[in-house]
Amino acid sequence: MKSEQFKSKGGQFLKKWWASIVLVPLIWYSVDQAYMTLRFNIFFSISYDFPFPVNIIHIFLDNFLLTVHEAGHTFFSIFGWRMLTILAGSLFQIIIPLLILAYAWFNRVKTGIQFSLYLVGFSFVDVAFYIADGGARQLPLLGNLSKEYHDWHNLLTQWNALEYDITIAVIICATGATCYLAALLLPAFFQAYRSVNIDMTF
Fold first, then answer.
1. How many beta carbons lie within 10 A of that of residue 38, not counting itself?
2. pTM value surpassing 0.85
């Protein structure tokens, strides 16, 4: 009897927390990468050694966000405002994951909300790396563009905030980490309901 109760509780636990369990290694390595990048060397943002299969997921998300980033530049360029066009890349790669999160939230898809929160956090961390490189401009740009095309160097220069590139990056990264934490703990805030059949015949 006790064995059956234990199995039942174990099954309920896994049903409630399986998405969080899946996300733990993804978030762990992302946070470690962020620490190594912002604390020691910006090149950890592109050369961090993720284990399998985390590396496959990371590559997929990185390429997805890169596509979204470039689409943001293209889309907002129609407005003819240079600063908005530059900012739009990073802005778009935050907005799209937020829209995915909003869709999952509106439809009350718990696992969808969790994975969307992870995507939002991942995107914030990715943007933070780009910001952190604003002053030094060491990272290679897409299409081998010259340093003059570095989005965050140009933005921070316009805002007279180039000396605060690392500070701003840490704040953005902390925002991403908060999203990670929310993704992990979300099941604790979802109420589980049981269906009960009530016989109304007399």
1. 20
2. yes
Residue 122 CB neighbours (<10 A): 25
Which tens digit of pLDDT belongs to each residue from 11-28? 788 888 999 999 999 999
Contact 87, 155 (CB under 8 A): yes
Q: List pLDDT tens digits, range 105-134.
A: 999 999 999 999 999 999 999 999 999 999
Q: How many domains are contained in the chain?
A: 1
Ordered alpha helix ranges (H), the chain: 2-39, 44-47, 54-76, 82-106, 110-132, 151-158, 165-185
* Peptide bond before residue 97 is cis, with ω within 30 degrees of 0: no
DSSP conformation letters of 118-166: HHHHHHHHHHHHHHHTTTT--SPPGGG--GGG-HHHHHHHHTT-GGGHH
200 pLDDT more than 60: no
Tell me phi and psi for residue 42, to 5 degrees: -60, -25
135 assigned to some structural domain: yes
Is 116 a member of any domain? Answer: yes
**Domain that residue 146 falls in:** 20-189
State yes or no: pLDDT of 59 exceeds 80.
Answer: yes
The answer as to whether 65 is a domain residue is yes
